[in-house]
Amino acid sequence: MPPVAVQTVRVDYPKLWFTLGSAVDIAAMVTMLYLAYDSVELFGQAFWASCALVICVPILLVLFPPVFTCHYVGEKGLRLRMGLLMNATVPYRYMRGVSDSKVSYGPLMVGVGVKYVPKRKLVFVTSSFKDLVAIRLDGPQQLGSPLRPLVDQVVLSVKDKEGFVALIKDRAGLEG
To answer: Please, where are the H alpha helices in 7-128?
Structure first.
C-alpha cells in the first residue's frame, strides 16, 4: 500500500488590525508626500519626503506583509507565518498538547504581532485578543533564529479555533 499524502491546510488568522494599521500608515505617507510636493521651500520638500521615508516605510514593512500571509498545517509540522515578524516551523514531535486559551490582562499584556516572553518561555503570535489557541511543547524549544529565546508554549490566534485544535490533535497524534 503506497503512503498517503497529507494535504497542507491553510490556517488564516484575523487581519483587521494589520489592515487598519496599514491604511493609517499609507494615509500618513500620502499626506507627508503631498506636503513635500506642495511645499515651496526646498527644506520643506526634503523634510516631508524624508519623514515619509524614515517613518512610514518601516512601519508599512511591518504591518503590510501579514495581510498576505497565513499559517500552514503541513505534513511534518505547523508553519507559523506572520509577514516579516514570524517565520518558523513547529514540528509535531515537539507538541505535547493543544487547547483553547484565554488572555488574562494581569501582569502579561498581549498585543498584535509577535511577542516573546522569556521568563515564562512563551511566544505570542497574535492578531486579535480572541480565538486564541495554546500549543504546549515538549520542553523548551528553539523557534525561529538562534537569537530568539527558548519557548515552552506558543499562543496564536486563528479564525476557526475548533477546526484548528482538531486538525493539530489529528496530525500530531495527541489524544483528545
So the answer is: 16-38, 42-51, 57-63
